[in-house]
Amino acid sequence: MALATGTVAVRDQSAEERMQALYDTHAKPVYSFLLRLTFGERQAAEDLLQETMVRAWRKIEALNADIATLRPWLLTVARRVAIDAGRAKRARPAEVGLVDMTVLPSGDDAIERMLAVQTIKRAMARLTPDHRNVIIEIYFRERSAAEAAAVLGIPEGTVKSRTYHALRSLRAAMGATVKRQPE
Hints:
The protein has 183 residues and is an all-alpha fold. It contains 7 helices and no strands. It has helices at residues 15-37, 42-58, 71-91, 110-126, 129-140, 145-152, 156-177. The radius of gyration is 27 Å and the shape is elongated.
């Protein structure tokens, strides 16, 4: 049954039909909105649109029967989904490149070995005590994360997190100390 506004009455439709009508009516404008929020990143906008539509699907039975009136609600949901995604992205630490192993000493030369030990000592000294303790347990005492957690009296997840952050700090410290040798 067509209404005066040109929309389809959805009272007699199933949830799937209502969702399809919602998508057909609002997906393009919501996608355009999300594309602006993501500075033109199509994949990100598509992912956010999908999450927006999933949230709409979860509430399809509670939503207004007139699909045409739901655009402001969908735009609000889309904006919140985008904000949540941005916060999640910022919460993850930025990846740090690996240390170039070709610039580390080969271990054949005693002087190079001594310099490597000094570099590692200086880098370890820059770590917080918590990070240093985790590195010592995991790498020097060769304990598993579970064993290190038991020894240090902290949760295993904390050991893993501290190890990750400590290694990043060590890589940064060693990268600043170890200079590329001329080829």
